[in-house]
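This section describes the prediction task in plain terms. A model, or a person checking by hand, is given the sequence of a single protein chain and must write out its three-dimensional structure as a string of tokens. No templates, partner chains or ligands are provided. The sample shown here is typical of the held-out split.
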Amino acid sequence: MSAPRLRRPLWAVTLSTFLGPGAGQIYNRDFGKGMALILATLVAGGGFLYAAGSAIFEIARVDPMAIEGDGAYSVAQRVLASQGGTLAYCSLALTVLWVVGIVDAFLSARRKSAGPPPAA
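The expected answer:
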């Protein structure tokens, strides 16, 4: 009898794990929370991509030959040297959002699958 109760929370966790933060919340019909997590994830991911992309673009503009051949490692070192802090903060934000999305999806689905408390 307990299997149907666990199916919904585990499905919400699966969605949040593999599709990203907010998917489990939308499955649980917590649309506001889901959209907020999706928006925050897009902002953090966009910040990461912008920081990395702008650093790579600057390297390519200054030294076009650095991008070719065996220069990938040195390009990565230069990107980390110039944008390491931003990349670290964005990575941390993405990790926190993912964990919060998974835990919240599970707790919310478990709370909703339990139904209303028994009347006294």
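For orientation: Residues 72-114 form the longest helix (43 residues).
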